[in-house]
Amino acid sequence: MSELQLAGVTVSRGAGPVISDVSLTIRAGQILALVGPNGAGKTSLLESVSGVITHSVGEITVDNESIGKRTRVQRSRLGISHIEQGRAIFPSLTVRENIMLTAKSEGTMREVLASFPELEKRIDAQAVLLSGGEQQMVVLARAFASKPRFLLIDEMSLGLAPVVFMRLLPIIQGIAASGVGVLLVEQFTNLALGIADEAMVVASGRVSHSQGPAAALAEDPELLRTAYLGS
Ligand SMILES: Nc1ncnc2c1ncn2[C@@H]1O[C@H](COP(=O)(O)OP(=O)(O)OP(=O)(O)O)[C@@H](O)[C@H]1O
């Protein structure tokens, strides 16, 4: 089974480390939720995995092979897809054109639309005319169309009401069920824990709750609160 692992990873920006000594494993077909307060370093960590920035200490591996020195494009070719914060659609293109940027073939397009039936109805609409939730579906569809092995999702719910974000959750579950390993950074903690297999908490640049079953955190608000406080 495919695995992406971080072992003792520290990421520095400017003056010094923003997140230190993180170890985690993203497994094919599973969702790992990474939660924690603002400024904890979650975005920086995701950026170090996809190669937007380079980590300073530790090891990042895919199936035991180090990828720390690879460029962002090389990591993308290895199957690491990173959905960054914000709705990264091309507003003047149609839904179909947005997805075809990564789908490349009509066959892949058909596969994607089978997993995103709501988008099929809007396929020829200009992306700018879609609702916020639908635009995020386009972002997910485009990532799925690139046939990733690992998908890093950074605060997809930003600017969305919880009820709108909830419509995206089965799609994320479906992507994982197709064999993709998902690392889900999310501000709606309980929603993220609800669909995750495993979860961990970071606070003030450190792991305050190590990777383990998501249910343990979901079912114990006091454990979650303590981890958010960084203890
Ligand atoms: N480009 C940058 N240059 C320098 N420091 C940065 C940069 N981006 C983020 N930081 C700092 O790194 C720390 C961690 O930020 P990061 O965005 O990774 O955390 P986060 O957990 O994703 O927070 P949020 O939930 O608010 O997005 C913060 O102190 C932030 O100010």
TrEMBL record:
<protein>
    <submittedName>
        <fullName>Amino acid/amide ABC transporter ATP-binding protein 2 (HAAT family)</fullName>
    </submittedName>
</protein>
<keyword id="KW-0067">ATP-binding</keyword>
<dbReference type="GO" id="GO:0005524">
    <property type="term" value="F:ATP binding"/>
</dbReference>
<keyword id="KW-0813">Transport</keyword>
<feature type="domain" description="ABC transporter">
    <location>
        <begin position="4"/>
        <end position="229"/>
    </location>
</feature>
<dbReference type="InterPro" id="IPR003593">
    <property type="entry name" value="AAA+_ATPase"/>
</dbReference>
<keyword id="KW-0547">Nucleotide-binding</keyword>
<dbReference type="InterPro" id="IPR052156">
    <property type="entry name" value="BCAA_Transport_ATP-bd_LivF"/>
</dbReference>
<dbReference type="GO" id="GO:0015807">
    <property type="term" value="P:L-amino acid transport"/>
</dbReference>
<dbReference type="GO" id="GO:0016887">
    <property type="term" value="F:ATP hydrolysis activity"/>
</dbReference>
<dbReference type="InterPro" id="IPR003439">
    <property type="entry name" value="ABC_transporter-like_ATP-bd"/>
</dbReference>
<dbReference type="InterPro" id="IPR017871">
    <property type="entry name" value="ABC_transporter-like_CS"/>
</dbReference>
<dbReference type="Pfam" id="PF00005">
    <property type="entry name" value="ABC_tran"/>
</dbReference>
<comment type="similarity">
    <text>Belongs to the ABC transporter superfamily.</text>
</comment>
<dbReference type="InterPro" id="IPR027417">
    <property type="entry name" value="P-loop_NTPase"/>
</dbReference>
<dbReference type="GO" id="GO:0015658">
    <property type="term" value="F:branched-chain amino acid transmembrane transporter activity"/>
</dbReference>
<keyword id="KW-0029">Amino-acid transport</keyword>
